[in-house]
Specification:
alpha/beta; 2 domains; eight-stranded mixed β-sheet; two-stranded antiparallel ribbon; 16 helices; 10 strands; 11% strand
Length: 409
């Protein structure tokens, strides 16, 4: 086994994607010549397609479909491969796949109540409707989408047969949407799991709803990792995750934090607007002792940092160094206090140190990434074409909030 390329994903995992396609994990990228591996041919995919991939990863070959992780690692950024190997360290000595995946990921279509700026109709029914109603306007700025003809694949007999075979062996299940808590199919899945007390459940949600029924279903699981997607705080959230209300999200988060079997974290997609509004997210997370998960937007490129000007990036880098130093100074102060502390206080200190380390690592990740980005003028132009159209359709105005993002001359 070659530790530089090995990944547990194709040995223990399966992802059912929003269009019903299969993947060993959420970061895997098929190449065009690949067969359309989907929920209808799961058995063949697990037994045949993944075999050469497994062999390559065992023998030090960077498999083509894992390009997202190889890119992150080249940038010095911790990849999903590395995180997954840490999570499932007891399986990193595998040379053959498990009989069935224990790490299962289900993406239940695109049913969602929000229109997030970096999202697409592929993951949001609200964006799908907005696009279809204004298709000519989007096409005029070279924005187009292809839609799957079988968006309700998760209601087919073929998928249900695979699901019934897979669920009994699940140790960890990850659910995404759309918005999972709005999906009756997701709630039905929770009820179908015969022994939830043996399952660790991860859910990625926008937290615009969190009913008593949801609390009751989640309380039955061994452990729940609830991940809320946040791109900004307050008015920034309401603009970037259009259709949501910050106060409602905070109220639902507070409700979830009272659950004894639940861990909470924030997921942030680092994009161009993050250069302006990332600091309030980090400070809000620190105030509430909530760790972060981050990923870097790589599509569409016009919403990424590629179009950001030198002025925007330099301001971010300056702020990143300052906030990193603030966190680091607090970390050092706690570490320097070596006097005796009662166990409850030691636990609080450890939690604080862990959170500060978490936040510092993400600042380092963002800083490394921003320093590597080369300015692309076309992406800058397309950024403004796109947000201008969204502002027109939604009666909003990006420039009134993000006064540090300037139009190209």
């Amino acid at each position: 086994m070659n530790s530089k390329t090995f990944c547990v994903a194709p040995f223990i995992g399966v992802e059912f994607r929003k269009n019903g396609r299969l993947g060993p994990c959420c970061r895997y990228a098929y190449i065009k010549k690949d067969v359309d591996w989907n929920f209808r041919n799961y058995d063949q995919w697990w037994e045949e397609y993944l075999t050469p991939m497994r062999e390559e990863l065992l023998n030090g070959i960077e498999h083509t479909g894992c390009q997202n992780c190889w890119r992150d690692e080249q940038l010095g950024i911790k990849s999903y491969r590395e995180s997954l190997n840490e999570e499932f360290v007891t399986y990193t000595n595998l040379t053959a796949p498990l009989p069935a995946p224990i790490h299962q990921m289900y993406n239940y279509g695109n049913f969602c109540n929000l229109k997030c700026i970096m999202c697409s109709p592929f993951a949001s029914s609200q964006l799908e409707t907005e696009f279809k109603q204004n298709k000519s306007k989007f096409n005029a700025i070279n924005v187009d989408y292809q839609f799957t003809t079988e968006i309700k694949w998760f209601r087919t007999d073929e998928f249900n047969k695979s699901k019934q075979k897979l669920l009994p062996g699940a140790e960890q299940i990850l659910i995404q949407g759309g918005e999972p808590f709005l999906s009756p199919d997701v709630l039905d899945l929770f009820r179908e799991i015969q022994h939830p007390e043996n399952v660790i459940l991860t859910i990625i949600s926008n937290m615009t709803t969190f009913t008593d029924e949801i609390v009751d279903l989640l309380s039955k699981f061994k452990h729940v990792r609830l991940v809320v997607s946040l791109e900004g705080v307050g008015k920034y959230n309401n603009y970037l995750r259009y259709g949501s209300e910050w106060d409602v999200i905070v109220s639902n988060i507070d409700k979830s934090l009272a659950m004894p079997n639940l861990d909470f974290s924030i997921a942030h997609t680092f994009q161009r607007t993050s250069l302006t509004c990332w600091i309030p997210i980090f400070k809000w997370a620190l105030d509430r002792n909530i760790p972060l998960r981050t990923n870097i937007l790589d599509h569409p490129m016009h919403l990424s940092v590629n179009g950001a000007t030198a002025e925007e990036k330099n301001a971010f880098l300056h702020d990143a160094v300052e906030l990193y130093n603030v966190f680091n100074n607090e970390y050092d102060t706690i570490m320097s206090d070596t006097g005796y502390k009662p166990k409850p206080e030691m636990a609080i200190r450890f939690q604080r140190l862990t959170l500060l380390s978490n936040l510092k690592s993400h600042i380092e990740r963002f800083k490394t990434y921003v320093e590597s980005v080369v300015y692309n003028h076309d992406d800058n132009l397309q950024f403004w074409r796109y947000v201008d159209l969204l502002d027109e359709l939604r009666d909003t105005k990006l420039s009134s909030l993000f006064n540090t993002i300037h139009r190209p001359v």
